[in-house]
Write a structure and sequence with these properties.
single chain; about 160 residues; mainly alpha
């Protein structure tokens, strides 16, 4: 048997590490759990039915009416819309549902990820981006900074600070 050189051993070790990395990456994209999102995910099984048939439970689920949800969706959809040529993207409707569920319940992102059948890392990114879009759209309407001294005094009087 020929003697194995140090360089050959190093190359074999590097090849094994590379194979493990690529195997892990490939496995993550092909998880059965995430592939079944459109048939078994909470958005497709529950949220769509609540939205169409049961407004009371929709309100309990998201703490807003269907009309308010649709209005909010129309405001943030252009900002949170994604496009990709590699695979189908998660639409703005599902992105907003995930974010509103997180904000409504304060539940762990991993729990929401399993319910909606989206990877936990994607859930974190979706929540971060959608909250940024919500802030961008809603803050000019609802969080206006006082522009002059009289506005500041009026606010102080309303709060009984003066």
């Amino acid at each position: 048997m020929a003697a194995v050189t140090r360089r050959t051993l190093l190359l074999m070790l590097m090849k094994r590490r590379w194979e493990k990395k690529t195997m892990y990456r490939k496995r993550m994209w092909e998880r059965k759990l995430f592939k079944e999102r459109k048939t078994k995910g909470e958005f497709y099984l529950l949220v769509q039915d609540l939205r169409l048939y049961d407004e009371e439970y929709f309100f309990r689920y998201f703490r807003m009416s269907v009309v308010q949800y649709e209005e909010l969706l129309s405001m943030v959809a252009p900002i949170i819309q994604k496009s990709s040529q590699k695979r189908e993207c998660i639409g703005p409707n599902e992105r907003l549902c995930v974010t509103m569920r997180y904000l409504t319940t304060g539940d762990a992102q991993t729990t929401i990820a399993m319910n909606y059948r989206i990877s936990p890392s994607s859930i974190g990114r979706i929540i971060y981006e959608t909250c940024g879009a919500l802030w961008q759209v809603l803050s000019p309407k609802f969080l206006q900074c006082p522009k002059n001294e009289t506005d500041w005094k009026r606010i102080a009087n309303e709060l009984n600070l003066i």
